[in-house]
Amino acid sequence: MRIPNSLMDQLLLAFDLDGTLIDSAQDICNAVNKTVAHFNKPLFPDELIVAHIGEGLRKLLADLFPEAKENPAKADLLESVFLHHYEAEMLKTTTVYPGVEDFLTGFKGSIAIITNKNAGPAREVVSHLKLNRFPWVHIFGADSLAEKKPSPLPLQTVIASANAKLENSFMIGDGTPDMVSAKRAGVKSIAISFGYTQLEVLNRHNPWAVLNRYSDLHSLISNTEIRS
C-alpha cells in the first residue's frame, strides 16, 4: 500500500552527508595526501582513501597511519594537519548528487543530516552548496553529541526533536555506520548504491531498501506502512 502524499509529512528522513547527499571524495583525498606529504610519506591512491571514508576523521587517519592508533599525541597532530589542509580543499570539487535538491524541494516531511564529519566542516559545506535553504531538523556531526554513528544516539535525538515515530523514520546512507545505527535505533535503513562503500558490504546489514538514484526516493518511501 502506497502512502498518499497527504501523509508524507509524517515521515522523517535522516541522511548521511559524504557519499550520500554530496560527492566530496576528491577534496577529502587531496587533503589526506597533503597531510601525508607533510610527513614526507608516500601518497595513497585515491581509491584506498575513499574506501576508508565514512567512520569519521579519527578512524580514517588511524587506518592510514597505523602508528597513530596507540599514540594520542600523533593522532591529534594528524587531525590538526588534515583539518588545516581540508579547510583549503573542501569546497573545490565537492558537488551535490543529481536529484538531491529536486527531492528535498518536493518532500514535505522532516529531514536531518547525521554525518561522521565534524560539525563545523559539515555545516560549511552544506552552506556553500546552498543545502542550508532546506529545513533540517538537525545537522549533527561526529562532535555534536557524546556519541556518533554507529551509536543510535544521533538518530534517537533527531527522532525525538522531530516528534517522529520509529516506524516512520529512515536512515539513508552509504556506510556501515549508517546501517548499524539504523538497526540499533530501530528504524529502516536505505543503502546508497552509488556512495563510497561497496553495496555488497552494505547488504550484509540487510537494509530495508537500496537507492540507485534520487529520482526513485519518493516512490521508494511511498511503499512503506505509516503510523499516525
Could you walk me through the main structural features you see in this protein, from its secondary elements to its overall organization?
The chain is α/β, with parallel strands linked by helices. The protein contains ten helices and eight strands. The strands form two sheets. A six-stranded parallel beta sheet has the order 5-4-1-6-7-8, sandwiched between helices. A two-stranded antiparallel sheet has the order 2-3. The model has no long low-confidence stretch (mean pLDDT 92).
Overall number of strands: 8
- Written as H for each helix and E for each strand, in order along the chain, the element string is EEHHHHEHEHEHEHEHEH
Q: How would you sum up the global shape?
A: globular
**Content of β-strand:** 5-15%
Mean pLDDT value: 92
In spatial order, strands of the major sheet run 5-4-1-6-7-8
The tally of helices reads: 10
> Which structural class do you get from the secondary structure elements?
alpha/beta
Note the main sheet: 6 strands, parallel
From the N-terminal CA to the C-terminal CA, the straight-line distance is 15 Å
CA radius of gyration is 18 Å
